[in-house]
From TrEMBL:
It comes from Candidatus Rhabdochlamydia oedothoracis. The chain crosses the membrane at residues 12-31, 37-61, 98-116, 125-145, 151-177, 198-221, 233-257, 278-298, 336-354, 360-386, 406-430, 436-459. Keywords: Cell membrane, Membrane, Transmembrane, Transmembrane helix, Transport. This is Glutamate/gamma-aminobutyrate antiporter. It is found in: Cell membrane. It is a multi-pass membrane protein. The lineage of its organism: Bacteria, Pseudomonadati, Chlamydiota, Chlamydiia, Parachlamydiales.
């Protein structure tokens, strides 16, 4: 029987948890990347949904309702493969963000520059200032606890992602139905992409990364009201909202901007400018830019605490030095948050001083995707193992088709993740990333470094690191 104090800690409803998941996945900044595929974006979205999003949603729901404890993938992989691999899995979930945070915050800086002065988007000191102030500000904001942080993300994703997304989609539909000139081919043949070479598919890795993150909210499982029932409902709802925003939003951009003119950085605002200018609503553009900034900040905020809480859970079994085990009165691991902020600050400096910004942007994105997908391989494998090794653990939700289903969805997830990890080593045809051998060496070295750190920490752990229960 649960105590009243335990019940009082469960502060998240289905709606809030669903919005947290949407804020984790649904970033409108990804729309220009997908819009380059034109109508064939539907094909790629279906590929991602069938081979990754659906398996991830079903398996995350089963694992989270079977082991509804704070810690997420750490708990799941630990139960199946042991403590060493559990620590490795949660580390990879956390470390992939190191390259991702400066990227999305640079998008925030560019959008803010549009509000102040477009020339500031090329000012590295301005961009660096936004990255540092933004991330450190959100770090200290999360000191106030999960309830305050989650409500900020909920409001932010509604105002800064869902609302602008619906507006862009609506304008795109009005544009197409109003017989305006459409810049992409609208035919059945256009649904099937042209494959000139594997290098044309490399950006697909970025699309998989865009849909990743459903399992992150499992870090909030101990804060959810009735997690066995509400968790699967929330992630299915979030998946439907995210999929709809991505596919319809990208088509809206592709309808008004020629494929060759779509910019990864400003494509979203460029499309909105065309819409608003045509419909004489240019006064909305600054408001939209402000809302997009709020949405991006809410997305970062959603990622900022979840993986850290999961990493902190490993201290129960002595996998973190005592220094990082300190929490404040709201049970927030403050020193881990500070450590994360310091690493992101360092990476922010490196990112800004790279000579080829577009190439560096993609290399960091590819590295982030590869390290994250390694964690997914362990998660899918653990789900298969746990179905056999611990069949009697009650699960409020199970992946369909019994044991055949867990093999089907688990195998799809593992094989797809392996394919995308290998695919990311191929330099994209659309970008100049320099020498292909240097490109591959950078990714491989970065991946080895990121994978090696958790094993080094685990090998040097001490008995005194085990967190004492009070």
């Amino acid at each position: 029987m649960k105590s009243s104090s335990d019940k009082s800690r469960r502060v998240l409803s289905v709606f809030v948890l669903a919005m947290l998941n949407v804020s984790i996945m649904a970033s409108l900044r990804n729309l220009p990347l997908v819009a380059e595929f034109g109508l064939s974006a539907i094909f790629f979205f279906l590929v991602v949904a069938l081979f990754f999003l659906i398996p991830c949603a079903l398996i995350s729901a089963e694992l989270a309702t079977g082991w509804p404890k704070s810690g997420g993938v750490y708990i799941w992989v630990r139960e199946a493969l042991g403590d060493r691999w559990g620590f490795f899995a949660i580390w990879m979930q956390w470390i992939h963000n190191v390259a991702w945070y400066p990227v999305i915050l640079s998008f925030v800086a560019g959008t803010l520059a549009y509000l102040i002065s477009p020339n500031l988007s090329q000012n590295k000191f301005f961009i660096l200032s936004v990255i540092l102030l933004g991330f450190w500000g959100m770090t200290f904001f999360n000191y106030f606890g999960i309830k305050t942080s989650s409500w900020f993300s909920t409001i932010g994703v509604i105002a800064g992602t869902i609302a602008p997304g619906i507006l862009i989609i609506s304008l795109g539909m009005i544009w197409i139905l109003g017989e305006r000139p459409v810049q992409m081919e609208l035919s059945w043949n256009a649904l099937i992409p042209e494959f000139k070479g594997i290098s044309d598919l490399v950006f697909l890795a970025g699309l998989f990364l865009a849909f990743a993150g459903l399992e992150v909210s499992a870090g909030y499982a101990s804060d959810v009201k009735n997690p066995r029932k509400n968790y699967p409902i929330a992630i299915v709802l979030a998946a439907i909202i995210t999929f709809s925003l991505f596919i319809l939003g990208s088509l809206a951009i592709g309808a008004v901007i020629p494929k060759t003119n779509i910019s990864f950085v400003s494509g979203l605002m460029d499309a909105c400018a065309i819409f608003f200018q045509y419909y004489q609503l240019t006064w909305i553009l600054p408001i939209l830019a402000f809302l997009l900034v709020i949405g991006a900040i809410a997305e970062v905020n959603s990622w900022l605490i979840g993986p850290v809480k999961g990493l902190y859970t490993t201290s129960t079994h002595g996998n973190l030095p005592l220094f990082f085990q300190k929490v404040n009165k709201r049970n927030v691991p403050t020193r881990l948050l500070l450590f994360q902020a310091m690493i992101v600050s360092i990476v922010g400096f490196i990112f800004l001083y790279m000579p080829n910004v577009s190439g560096a942007f993609w290399i960091l994105t590819a590295l982030s995707a590869q390290s994250y997908l390694i964690m997914y391989i362990l998660m899918f494998l653990s789900a298969i193992i746990l179905r056999y090794s611990k069949p009697h653990v009650p699960r409020a939700y199970k992946a369909p088709f019994k044991n055949k289903g867990i093999w089907l969805f688990g195998s799809l997830g593992i094989l797809t993740s392996l394919f995308v990890i290998i695919l990311a080593f191929v330099p994209p045809a659309q970008l100049n990333t320099g020498n292909p051998w240097v490109y591959c060496t950078f990714l491989l070295s970065g991946l080895i470094f990121m994978c090696g750190i958790p094993f080094l920490i685990y090998a040097r752990r001490k008995p005194s690191w085990v967190k004492k229960k009070h």
